[in-house]
Amino acid sequence: MSFLDTEREVLERLLPGLDAALAGHPLATLERPGSPGVAAFRDAGGTALLVPGESSGIGASPLEAVRLQRAVGARCPSLAVATTMHHFSVAGLVEATRHGGGFAWMLLEAVVNDRLLLASGFAEGRTGQSVLRPAITAERRGDHIVLNGSKKPCSLARSMDVLTASVTMTDEDGTERLAVAIVPATADGVSVRPFWGNSVLAGAESEEVVLTDVALDPQMVVTTDVTAGSALDALHVAGFLWFELLMTAGYLGTASALAERVLRRGGGSAADRATLVTELDAAMLAVEAVAREMGEATGWGEALLVRALTARYAAQDAIARATPVALAALGGMSFIGSDEGTYLASAATGLAFHPPSRGRTAEALCAAVDGQALRVG
After folding, report:
1. Which residues lie below 8 Å from residue 251, measured CB to CB, with a gap of 6+?
2. The Acyl-CoA oxidase/dehydrogenase middle domain covers which part of the protein (predicted)?
């Protein structure tokens, strides 16, 4: 068995042809704006990965999903980031259907039949701001709910068919509660503005999506009982679990692509190569352990989310240790001859920038392991 064989077997079994399609393009082509990776993902039926079998989807288990995502990240880091947001949105819709989300089940069937891509407009990317405080507001106006605000960055902004967005709605008593809105990309008032200025991960289409007086049918807004600073409900726990595990697996795949180059070329010492495999596979085993528990558990609670966050932060550390070892093992001529190694090393560090950041979560994690409710800030 070779490095990444297990992950690529899962990818080929669930999304036949995608690995070969991605491998057929140079890394630079896959990672630039307008990447062919998104179309390849759609053509392979990837939109249906987490849609349950009863809704005609693939119904991948959490363990299969994280292994597949590592394989995607090893071929196209931008696609791993972008599709994590799609899968995260789909998982949220699945959870919403279990809590009576009226329109969600119809959208899930369309995701399968029409291969719709879902962008995720959940709070992210604002320094010092709680990830549970969206930048999009919702208010009732007659028979509609009207949205205003923007999400930046928003992956799949150029290719999305639907935006699923967290929004704040104000109760009659003035309490702000979180809700999830389902917004067609073609709805009046939806626009996309350039935002991503870095060449790294540019293929993820992470631009700004702006909502200006977007009027929705109330059925397309799923309300929750969560307020800023409150404990998480089942919908948010499920969302965070999928997000943390899939994003972590994707970035581990990106770091693994760098390690794979070292293994194939025999670079560095045997101790160096063993270090790379040990660091990255051990981190992936932690992700897989949480994914297995997700697949076996009858319910997902805060304790499981604490373990997912632990695995994610441990993976960040493993990536930080492994990437410089890999670059050194590849050597100076590799550095001179191609920017692929430095690109992969840079892209792999992106995991540290996704919410919730370690600094903002440290106190909450300490409180959670001391028996208190987990509050993600």
Report:
1. 73, 77, 80, 315, 319, 347, 348, 350, 351
2. 121-214
